[in-house]
Amino acid sequence: MSRGMKTDEPPRELLLLKLLPNLVSILALCAGLTAIRYAIAGNYGLAVLLIGTAAALDGLDGRLARMLKSESAIGAELDSLCDNVNFGVVPAIVLYLWGLRTETSLGWIAVLVYATCCMLRLARFNVGSRAVGDVAEKTVFIGVPSPAGAMLVLSPMYLSFIPASGLTVPPFIIAGWMVGIGALMISRVRTPSLKRITVSTDYVRYVLVGGVALVAALLTYPWVTLLTLSMAYFSGIVWLALRSLRKPAS
Questions:
Q1: Would the pTM count as exceeding 0.70?
Q2: H helical segments located in 6-154
Q3: Does 130 reside within a domain?
Q4: DSSP secondary structure, 180-231, as one string
Q5: Torsion of CA 74, 80, 81, 87, to 10 degrees
Q6: Residue 225 domain-assigned (yes or no)
Q7: What span, in angstroms and rounded, lies between the C-alpha atoms of 120 and 206?
Q8: Residue 99 belongs to what H/E stretch?
Q9: Which tens digit of pLDDT belongs to each residue from 49-102?
């Protein structure tokens, strides 16, 4: 065989099951983009539901990849790109279509600021995860993660959808809220990572019952439950920020 001749290597085979995490990421992207379609049609409740579906799928794809041992560089990139669309672009556009069209200039500025902050948040997370010798965001997050940011930024919609509230949120408050949540995403505020929360085996049964109660509340009173969860999470962020500010003085 001559030195310049190349041998044809057979293509590598991959278990079809190992493509499942990437498929879940793509399904999450489809759910997020479809939310824009329903927002354009005026079905904002379904649009929010689809963003929530995208968030649930986002929490599933990484766990599937680790469980199936199919983690890859392309999977990580795909997950990050989908997150940028689902939790940066989509919530901003849905909010714009819902409550900011009367203030087009102010509303669009808020959309651009929020979407840009989400992109920067994801870029910082990706760089921190890959840097040699740098501590990845495993026990805590630095800044509000993008799925939580999307949940928080949609809070004005939850409030207005509560039947008993009868409230109409002014556009300038919606725009200010969007910019504020965007600032929290790129901030250095530490927020807890639910991945590392542990519970004693003695209390597992209570956690399971609590999970059932939470699902039942989401199905029965979705907007009240989502608003309560969002405000509880936001209060936790404020508490951690104040706690960290008091530490140097002690």
A1: yes
A2: 20-40, 44-68, 73-84, 90-95, 104-130, 146-153
A3: yes
A4: HHHHHHHS--EEE-GGG----GGGHHHHHHHHHHHHHHHHHSHHHHHHHHHH
A5: 160
A6: yes
A7: 38
A8: none
A9: 999 999 988 888 777 777 767 667 777 788 888 899 999 999 999 999 998 988
Euclidean distance between CA atoms 88 and 74, whole angstroms = 20
How far apart (Å, rounded) are the C-alpha atoms in residues 60 and 19? 13
Decide if 71 contacts 27 (C-beta within 8 A).
no
In a domain, residue 246? The reply is no
Q: How much is the CA Rg of the chain, to the nearest whole Å? A: 21
Residue in the structure block whose two tokens are 């519970």: 199
Q: Is the torsion defined by CA of 130, 133, 137, 141 positive or negative?
A: negative
Q: The domain spanning residue 124 has which CATH number?
A: 1.20.120.1760
| Domain around 192 | 17-240
Residue 200, φ and ψ in degrees, nearest 5:
-65, 145
| 86 in Cβ contact with 54 (< 8 Å) | yes
Structural domain includes residue 8 = no
Which structure tokens are listed for 119?
């992109």
DSSP state of 159: H
